[in-house]
Design brief:
By secondary structure, this protein is an alpha/beta fold. It has six helices and five strands, in the order αβαβαβαββαα.
Length: 171
Amino acid sequence: MAPLSHILVSGLSLLATATAAVVDLDPKNFDNIVLKSDKPALVEFFAPWCGHCKNLAPVYEELGQAFAHAEDKVTVAKVDADEHRSLGKRFGVQGFPTLKWFDGKSDKPEEYNSGRDLESLSAWITEKTGVKAKVPKKEPSKVEMLTEDSFKKVVGGEKDVLVAFTAPWCG
């Protein structure tokens, strides 16, 4: 009988594989998955230390999940271009994160320069492929975004309130 730790590790590996909808690329698999598959692909060139990349990561993972139903029609992929600098150099990556669209017919990608939110990224892929994203409905947030006016009403009340002060440019 296998030790419990082996079973647990195997189960977690299987779970991670089942939920990873974004394809990890490296120099060994890039050409086959992106350039020779006759399938369009959106590729994120990222660096693990990059704050903007870390902010994009959960959105990009959601994007992969949203198009997982159409993996035969479009690929959502990423490459650690800090580790695999040859790929970043090959495709003219100047900063992180860089998103490039490969149409499945050419090795000349198109730069993606629009919004970094799920809606914008999904719309881009849909516009290019005709494939629609399948995004699960989310519960409404229990976090309330405060304004100058609502701050006084919410914080000045009877119940305890936890407030996080953030800045959108702080990565």
